[in-house]
TrEMBL record:
UniProt protein name: Large ribosomal subunit protein bL32
Keyword Hydrolase: no
Lineage of source species: Bacteria, Pseudomonadati, Bacteroidota, Bacteroidia, Bacteroidales
Matches recorded under NCBIfam families: rpmF_bact
Gene Ontology cellular-component terms listed: large ribosomal subunit
Family: Belongs to the bacterial ribosomal protein bL32 family.
Keyword DNA repair appears in the UniProt entry: no
Keyword line: Ribonucleoprotein, Ribosomal protein
A Gene Ontology molecular function term of the record: structural constituent of ribosome
Record-linked InterPro entries: Ribosomal_bL32 (IPR002677), Ribosomal_bL32_bact (IPR044957), Ribosomal_zn-bd (IPR011332)
GO annotation, biological process: translation
Encoding gene, per UniProt annotation: rpmF
Pfam family of the protein (one): Ribosomal_L32p
Highest taxon, organism lineage: Bacteria
């Protein structure tokens, strides 16, 4: 079964529905995981 995908309203990246965005770390408009800046 393929997981349902959604577009992150914060950064526009695709992510699995009802999970934290892997690109920006936001979930439902709140910062859930602080991401390190790329070097």
């Amino acid at each position: 079964m393929t997981p349902t995908m959604a577009i992150c309203p914060n950064c526009g990246a695709w992510h699995v529905y009802h999970t934290v965005c892997n690109e920006c770390g936001y979930y439902r408009g709140k910062l859930a995981i602080e991401k390190e800046a790329a070097l």
